[in-house]
Specification:
alpha+beta; eight-stranded mixed β-sheet; 19 strands; nine-stranded mixed β-sheet; binds flavin-adenine dinucleotide; single chain; FAD/NAD(P)-binding domain
């Protein structure tokens, strides 16, 4: 096979031996995972489980308020989704059509949730600026391509509703004009949300980590939290590297949630998501394919998403992967290359250099949740695949709630956090559910 694999070879799946693919996030090339030997302190104000955007954002806010914060991760800091994602930043408001959200939650609550979604975008923008995090944050806008003509009409109506109830700016691009947005014939027009944004996830995570360290926080890797036991004053937190006594605990494990807190484990199902990175694409080709360098997605249930890598002429292409356990095999990524070439057949000969995956935390009601468990543990998780802005914001808010500050209140506070019925079956049923959704996308059921 040689040292590199082209997009068409990967899509066809007909490879043997070494494909040259690197099975780690492309983002880690610019922001390698830190090695640390920080000892576990005997006591701390707040122990945070999980060192992704939620955990680090919570730590940052706590430290700004004078509280101590120690962040634990089972693996190296930032091992989870936060350094593996596509770096596409939205408000989360596209998860439900406005009318569906109103039908589910009532008009007042739906409006509050949507408005808070737009605040999450503003929050990450302000945080990156305030902390001077060098991560290519850009309000590049999002183009969402309609897979069928009726999707275009439905999106247009939804964009009008979003504007009417929350003032969200957007515009529609008909198929006849879409070459200005994307060099592909596959879509039936699309919508543009100009305020949506992008960043380099590895560098954003590294920037947050540097903030936490500079403010006196500690981030301890290879320290799985194995048990949390309530004490008369706080909690005993037993980790793989020793134990600490914390006045408070925040659980920030999202798609990597395990049985540590069964109450949360029953409320999260982890779904694999994968990305591939191409090698360098000729500039003129990339200018034609992605002329405005936005972030992109489509209207399918099992959807794909893509963008150009910041400062490089590469495409980063993502979608669902079946089994994360088997993801260090080229076969786990063939369908991503296949989808990419259906949209951009011109890049069939371009190499694919990286392929990786991570876990998304899904909730039963497809809404993220934050709050306090029956045992008094704070938590923020369940971003359902839109977590760059939402994890940052929820981490900040849960820290404010822990500090007892009224600014910590959110429209999400009084939502019931439903458990998955028959949780173990739901976990195992994920591939079957995905196959069903793919079938419905293909047949327009
Ligand atoms: C492939 C992929 C692509 C994505 N693309 C996008 C995108 O383009 N835009 C977007 O908005 N969102 C995207 N997301 C979602 C987004 O990345 C996540 O919602 C967000 O990063 C969640 O951050 P977090 O801090 O809550 O969790 P994570 O970053 O997943 O961190 C959780 C951490 O908890 C640790 N942990 C778990 N259990 C324990 C324990 N017992 N003890 C110690 N540590 C523990 C894990 O090791 C992990 O590092 C994507 C996700 C994936 C996987």
């Amino acid at each position: 096979m040689g040292e590199t694999i082209s997009a068409s070879q990967l899509a066809a799946g007909g490879f043997r031996g070494d494909t040259g693919l690197k099975f780690h996030p492309y983002w880690w090339e610019a922001a390698s995972r830190p090695v640390d030997s920080t000892p576990v302190p005997k006591k701390c104000d707040v122990a945070i489980v999980g060192s992704g955007f939620t955990g680090l954002s919570a730590a940052n806010t706590l430290l700004d308020s004078g509280s101590g914060a120690v962040v634990f991760d089972r693996d190296v800091p930032g091992f989870g989704a936060s350094t593996r994602n596509g770096g596409q930043i939205g408000s989360g408001n596209q998860k439900f059509r406005v009318k569906t959200l109103i039908a589910l939650r009532g008009e007042k609550k739906a409006i509050a949730l949507i408005r808070e979604g737009t605040q999450m975008l503003a929050h990450i923008d302000e945080l990156v600026a305030a902390e001077k995090i060098d991560c290519d944050f850009r309000r590049c806008g999002r183009f969402r391509g309609a897979i069928r003509p009726e999707h275009y009409e439905a999106m247009a109506r939804d964009m009008e509703d979003l504007k009417a109830i929350a003032g969200v700016e957007s515009f529609m691009v008909p198929r006849s004009e879409q070459a200005s947005e994307i060099g592909s014939e596959i879509f039936h027009g699309g919508s543009v949300l100009p305020q949506d944004a992008s960043l380099h996830p590895g560098r954003y995570h590294a920037g947050l980590l540097a903030c936490v360290n500079a403010k006196g926080g500690r981030v301890i890797g290879n320290a799985a939290v194995l048990e949390i036991t309530p004490e008369s004053k706080g909690f005993r937190v037993r980790t793989a590297r020793g134990e600490t006594h914390a006045l408070n605990v925040i659980i920030a494990t999202n798609g990597y949630t395990d049985g540590l807190v069964p109450e949360l484990n029953r409320r999260i199902v982890s779904i694999g998501s994968g990305l591939i990175a191409t090698g360098e694409i000729p500039e003129a080709t990339l200018d034609r394919l992605l002329p405005k360098r936005r972030v992109y997605g489509n209207t399918n249930r099992v959807f794909y998403y893509f963008r150009a890598a910041p400062g490089a002429r590469r495409i980063i292409w993502g979608g669902r992967v079946g089994r994360v356990a088997a993801a260090n095999s080229p076969r786990a990524y063939c369908h991503l290359a296949d989808d990419m070439l259906r949209v951009f057949p011109d890049i069939a000969d371009v190499p694919v250099t990286h392929a990786w995956s991570g876990l998304i935390g899904y909730t039963y009601d497809e809404v993220p949740h934050l709050g306090r468990s029956a045992a008094g543990l704070y938590y923020a998780l369940g971003y359902c695949g839109t977590g760059v802005s939402r994890a940052t914001y929820f981490g900040h808010k849960i820290a404010l709630q822990l500090l007892g500050k009224k600014e910590g209140r959110t429209a999400f506070d009084d939502l019931t956090f439903p458990a998955f019925p028959a949780h173990t079956i739901a976990k195992r049923a994920v591939p079957a559910v995905e196959t069903w959704y793919r079938f419905r996308d293909a047949t327009n059921l």
